Amino acid sequence: MSPAKSHPLIRQDWIDVGEGHQLFLAQYGDPQGIPVLYLHGGPGAGCNPQELRLFIDRGFHIYLLDQRAAGRSKPCGEVANNDFPSLVKDIERVRHWAGIDAWCLLGGSFGATLGYLYSCIYPERVLSQIYWGMFIPSAEGMEWLYGRGGAAQIFSSQYRQFAAGHGGTLDSLFSHFTDGFNHRDAEVRRNCVMRWLSWELALAVPGFELSEALAEQGGALARVELHYARNDYFGGYQLMKRVGGDLTCPTIILQGELDWVCPQRLVDEFLDNHGPRLLRSRLVKGGYHTLADNKMCRAVAEAVTQMGRYLAAGRS
Q1: Fewer CB near the terminus (10 Å): N or C of the chain?
Q2: Domains identified in the chain and CATH numbers
Q3: Is Nuclease set as a keyword in this record (predicted)?
């Protein structure tokens, strides 16, 4: 049975959160089921109904939220009034709008970072949460992802194509892409978007070839990602360090053994220094960064199933 048939659409809405942004929210599954908010990565990637495949069992009320400027949220690709603290506040606005007292969180990559931070700031609003490929927006995390001394040492030829001679510093690299994304020549803009997205795909799904169609759809994603990276994720790491120990709900963090975007080492170093005392990430042997990898998708789906059954038993 397809994910859509197992978890039928309940309704779709655009929620006005002010500052010129409207968020697209799609609800699936059982209106009386366990509420679960899915947080996509990027920032700027948007949700896909295919992600419903993570829910093997029924009995969930699933909220797929496109964050500011992502997916079908409006305006797509907009960077004005788009920052880390605003995304955290948006989650709470959506919870109020939906009339939910507390919900579960589920997300990967930047979505894991966002959800983790929300759960520390609003611990009473989170029942349980599962994350994978969690991104740590520290200077080391950014250097690993975009600099010459991290993943570039493993994927050297791909990095040369990505940086195109501008990888001396992160500032020079980000300035180069800012100029390229805003260039008056459409071909220059397209080339820069292709290079940005190709680098991320090389790390997330090695061997995957970026198509022209995906590059066309990914322009907004690349712009929003660059906006966050160039602004040091708007103090997100400093905030995570300050509140990371305040987490109280059951939490699972899954990191792929072959995750070249967000290495497990960086996650566990953060948790060792700033997280709850007993929380550590779990290694998915042979797993990559995204749900496109069957091992990671299966590991997340199994964790979601266990979470749902545990919470359902507590309800009965």
Answers
A1: C
A2: 3-136+234-315 (3.40.50.1820), 140-232 (no CATH)
A3: no
